Amino acid sequence: MSAPTLDDTLVRALVADAVTAPSQHNAQPWRFRYARADRTLTLDADPDHALPQADPTGRGLHLGCGAALLNLRVSAAHAGLHAAPALLPDPRRPAALAAVRLDASGEPVDPDLVGLHEAIRARHTSRLPYTDREIPPPVRTALLAAAAVEGACLTFLTGPHRETVLDLITQAEGYNRLDEARDAEQRRWTHETTAASPADDGIPDYAFGPRSPDATAPVRDFAGRRAQPGRAYATFERHPQLATLSTPGDAPADWLRGGQALQRVLLRATRQGLVSSFATQPVEWPDLRWILRDPVSGAGHVQMILRLGYGPEGPATPRRPVDQVLTITP
Predict the structure, then answer these.
(1) Which of 147, 155, 158, 182 is the most exposed place for a label (fewest CB within 10 A)?
(2) Which is more confidently placed, 223 or 144?
(3) What is the pTM (predicted TM-score) of this model?
(4) Is the per-residue pLDDT at 294 higher than 90?
């Protein structure tokens, strides 16, 4: 296998794949810097796309950037490049989240990463109702393995624990609506779709999904307090298939690893014909997040609640142009 030519066009293509990753409120809290001299891409946090109300510690920001980092690794592998990331490479620059040297040695790359590439553009968050078809055990096992490769633990919820988490999602949704600052922040990152003022970040109204008639849907209602004339109502699945993603620690490096694990699970799920969405509300409230832990083991720190299943694909949401998030230097 010949080594690929690493030019600016390929670097832009890698970043274009990276930024399709999900992020809280689709805020896209990342920037990339590529240094031609040492063939290194640096992933930085973008403070202008942070969520100080919903994510005061930056945990969600790190998860989103970690997901973008996994996409970058997948895209690099597909191009025949090795891309081993160094997390938090410079203690003097906490905004520098990862440094990735792109190695075009021509040696074989990770085939598991290569196999996920086609799912990068196919994965979209679906806030639509799913069917009640159960995810088969072999598929669940594959998703658990995907998380474990990145050092995280995926746990499918059952019995009373699942019911508790569903209650916490509803409770946290109520907390958010009563919190003036959080509601205002959510409004900033949601918008109506108009041809006159297209947006390249945030959640457009066409991606909100329908409203549940009993207000217990296992997804965030991005309409919040606002009335949305003409918005459809729909009944969601009776038994949502929920899973928590946990990491052993709860520091910035753990959050970045958790984000990579999250995206690896999502890409694997997409390859398996599943759709997915998130229920981040309880994870945003420290007192509720603690209750999300496994009641038996009590181990790990929950970073995300995933809703997985079979159903209609969600619509693509906008992304910032690559030239807005990538800087190339000699």
Answers:
(1) 158
(2) 144
(3) 0.96
(4) no
pLDDT exceeds cutoff 60 at 195: no
pLDDT digits (tens, 9 = 90+) for 73-95: 999 999 999 999 999 999 999 99
For the segment 311-329, the average pLDDT, to the nearest whole number, is: 96
Biggest CA pair distance of the chain:
58
How do strand 190-191 and strand 203-204 relate by DSSP bridges?
A: parallel
Residue-wise DSSP of 240-284? -EEEEEEES--SHHHHHHHHHHHHHHHHHHHHTT-EEEE--GGGG
pLDDT of residue 245: 97
How far is it, in rounded angstroms, from Cα 46 to Cα 312? 32
Would you say residue 298 has pLDDT above 80? Answer: no
**Torsional class of 295: left (φ above 0), alpha (ψ -120 to 50), beta (otherwise):** alpha
Structure tokens at 99: 């440094």
Beta bridge mates, 31: 44
Helix, strand or coil, per DSSP, at residue 220:
coil
Which candidate, 19, 64, 63, places its Cα nearest to that of 41?
Answer: 19
Measured CA to CA, the distance from residue 64 to residue 259 in angstroms comes to 6
116 closest CA partner among 276, 236, 265, 7: 265
Instruction: Give the per-residue pLDDT at 194.
Output: 66
Nearest to 222 by CA among 193, 264, 196, 200: 193
Q: Where are the beta strands (DSSP E) in the chain?
A: 30-35, 40-45, 82-87, 96-103, 153-156, 190-191, 203-204, 241-247, 275-278, 301-309, 326-329
Q: Concatenated DSSP letters for 27-73?
A: ---EEEEEETTTTEEEEEE-GGG--TTT-TTSHHHHHHHHHHHHHHH
76 closest CA partner among 108, 114, 107:
114
